[in-house]
Amino acid sequence: YNPASEVLLGKPKVYLQPRAGEGRWVQLVSARQVPGTLLVRVAGVRDKAAAERLRGAELEVLRSALPPPDEDEFYHCDLQDCEVWLEGKPIGKVLRVNEYPTMDVLEVTGGARAYEVPLHADYVRDINVSDKRIELVTLDGLD
């Protein structure tokens, strides 16, 4: 969830994945930001008990609902499966981007070990989304 994004405020059709049970495509009727989260009303959810069962559900939007990123920007999902290189050698691929309170990190897997690499200039030299390639500066200090 990106609290700065207004995509869900436009009430798009979204994929709703509850904590328990099967996900489904639903239409948002309303959406508003409140401190720390987003409150939405879903078409077909008619009472408080049904709404409570959806508390904490994840909402996913189609890529086509997102605005294109600015130059030198990317969506975290664009980094998934990027090949990660260090000193001219591939060391793995990005499994996902983990969002921590202080910094986002690349979860890199493959080879002999896994790494969590901070998305910071001290560690990441270049990100080329179109080539699905990320060049690192170093892994020093990530043990």
Summarize the structure.
Helices cover 7% and strands 41% of the residues. It contains two helices and ten strands.
Architecture overview:
The protein folds into two domains: 7-65, no CATH class; 76-136, PRC-barrel domain (SH3 type barrels, Roll), CATH 2.30.30.240. The protein is mainly β. β2 and β3 form a beta hairpin. It has two helices and ten strands. The chain is elongated, with a radius of gyration of 18 Å. The mean pLDDT is 90. It is 7% helix and 41% strand. The strands form two sheets. Strands 8-7-6-5-10-9 form a six-stranded mixed sheet.
Give the topology.
Blueprint: E1 13-17, E2 24-34, E3 37-42, H1 48-53, E4 58-60, H2 76-79, E5 83-86, E6 89-99, E7 104-109, E8 115-118, E9 124-128, E10 133-136
Parallel strand pairs: 5-10
Antiparallel strand pairs: 1-2, 1-4, 2-3, 5-6, 6-7, 7-8, 9-10
Spell out the key features of this protein.
about 140 residues; mainly beta; SH3 type barrels; 2 domains; six-stranded mixed β-sheet; four-stranded antiparallel β-sheet; about 5% helix
Biggest sheet, strands in spatial order?
8-7-6-5-10-9
Residue share in β-strands: 35-45%
Order of helices and strands: EEEHEHEEEEEE
CATH superfamily of the largest domain: PRC-barrel domain
